[in-house]
């Protein structure tokens, strides 16, 4: 029932509200108390209406807010995964968004979203706020950016904890003769050999895929998985598809069983 108001931008309502305020002042100066009360009531009603429609996403605020929200929601899973991969906590406990903002540039280009320069910052702020809330659902999946704050061994245990919370039996091998298996996970009749790669520089490459594939064969696991906090190179993704190795970000571990189904 409110969609008819969508033809007005918030700036229109703001201007109308300003006019009402000026009108109230004029009526007050003219000592027309009854008209002043009516005008005040109309101005208050207009402000409440603007607030309500904006909260419902039916009234754009400096841009096509409702359309932007729908676009962001259509790509919620991909955006949330990329947010977790790219937004880092630095050595001083502050979040760094540089790479995430670069990703939003690619997102707008890929979805053919054309914005005026003044609307880009508004869109990015909306996307960051919405996706940040989705990403915060699993705070355990966030790790610090500084190497000194987490070791590769700590990362293996973090991944194992995520698997246990999802119902897996997860054992961190910690053995030199494990042939590259960092975690051996079991659930029902499934066994998965995982290799954990904690990277803070370049994306994970072919070598990790080859090692995971060999390691799974060595321990007779049903599946081979490489888990990392970083992206994977295109070559690594191609090789993984060829060998049947699953490449995941650690934030995806709670959904590991579902992700394994297409590989079976």
UniProtKB/TrEMBL annotation:
Tell me one Pfam family matched here: Mrr_cat
Q: Which GO terms describe its biological process?
A: DNA restriction-modification system
| UniProt key word Transmembrane | yes
Domain Restriction endonuclease type IV Mrr residues, every copy: 148-254
Q: Where are the transmembrane segments?
A: 12-32, 38-61
User: What does the UniProt keyword field contain?
Assistant: Endonuclease, Hydrolase, Membrane, Nuclease, Transmembrane, Transmembrane helix
What would be an example GO MF term here?
A: DNA binding
Q: Which Gene3D superfamilies match?
A: 3.40.1350.10
The UniProt record lists the keyword RNA-binding: no
Under which name does UniProt file this protein?
Restriction endonuclease
The organism named in the record is Labrys okinawensis
